[in-house]
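Bench log, entry 3. Co-assembly request; chain sequences pasted below exactly as received.
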Amino acid sequence: MGILERKIRQKENMRTNILAVAMQLVKEEGWQSLSIRKIADAIEYSVPVIYDHFENKEAILFELSMDGFRLLDRLLEKDKRKYADPEERLRAHAETYWNFAFKNPEYYQLMYGLGMPCSSPGKAKPEFNSFREHIAEAIEGIVKDNKSSEDETCFKIYAFWSVLHGLISIVMMRCSDIDDSQMNKKVMDDSVNAFIKNL
Amino acid sequence: MGILERKIRQKENMRTNILAVAMQLVKEEGWQSLSIRKIADAIEYSVPVIYDHFENKEAILFELSMDGFRLLDRLLEKDKRKYADPEERLRAHAETYWNFAFKNPEYYQLMYGLGMPCSSPGKAKPEFNSFREHIAEAIEGIVKDNKSSEDETCFKIYAFWSVLHGLISIVMMRCSDIDDSQMNKKVMDDSVNAFIKNL
DNA sequence: TACCTTTGCTAACATCGTTAGGTAAATCTT
DNA sequence: AAGATTTACCTAACGATGTTAGCAAAGGTA
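Structure output for the full assembly:
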């Protein structure tokens, strides 16, 4: 009988609905004002129902951050299929990362704890922060003919990631006084160019 | 009569005491668990007294972040007096910035909104985020003989800041899998070297 | 002594995350 | 179909949060 299946389906529906509604609220009002009660209102159920599907609020944020990592990963995989040349691919990854951050600032903030009580850092990483692995692959592809040591290569990977993340953070948190997004992107392009030239 | 002076002095004392106690609590238990009531307990006054000295909690955090900026600024000024050569000075600034971040992670987190509801971003900047100006001076000193445009120089400044801030953020939020602090510092040194070579 | 300003407190409000405990409906068992 | 049981869901509370209204006492002024 399909009753059990229906129930499982309903339960899953509720779960994804909670996540969707939470994300919706976040996009409308920001992370700071997301509350369990608002989610409950939005899904038209009472508060405790949410705790049947998630252990606590942090678990919801965690799941949403995973969604963010998954989305980013999908985009990076697309780059990988599109660009065989490691240098082109690395440039594409940088562009993708940058665009992801500014098209989905809520995700980016949650994933890397920008301006909010961090939810994920130190937990979601190993399995889901695939950005490092993606750029690692590209960078290794570029330097494989050099005599660079393993350590040096590892350093380069973090250096590359750092420029991107640092610049995104500074811009996103309005620590920069450049408010022209074209300009900001040029800073990134410049840095990426300099970085690649120096590999 | 000195009564008024004494009162002003007492009022100021209370204010600085609140800030000191708040910072103390933060160092002991982290930003997340700082509350007005805990501050009130610690200064042995009732809660509303705090609101005689600060408009709200954010104002306290803001003031503390200013302390952070001031402390960092003092250290950078010391570099400036110590190193006349712009390249040496830039290296010193990088080292100072890095050390400041990891010796005072609470300040750094507050100043740049790492893993907490941001307090300052977009407000304290113009007057107090002097780091950009300090490295700007050093970088301009290095490139002044070149034919670099003003825009290019500006880009370099943000690029430099970005590597530092990005790497610090990644390490501080445990997004990196390098947990050897010597190693992390080497990544920074590498990046700084590459950056300077490319100026 | 009568008045007023300052100083500090108690007690409350609204909101938050979280949970205990109950009710009614849906399902399973016989 | 009727009774037993599990499930789905809700109301109401607990404790903690930031914040504020309103009062009492203390101290200076007239």
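The interface with chain A takes residues 32, 112-118, 121-122, 125-126, 129, 132, 152, 154-156, 158-159, 161-167, 169-170, 173-178, 186-187, 190-191, 194-195, 197-198 of chain B (CB under 8 Å). Residues 7, 45-49, 52 of chain B lie near DNA strand C (CB under 10 Å from a C1').
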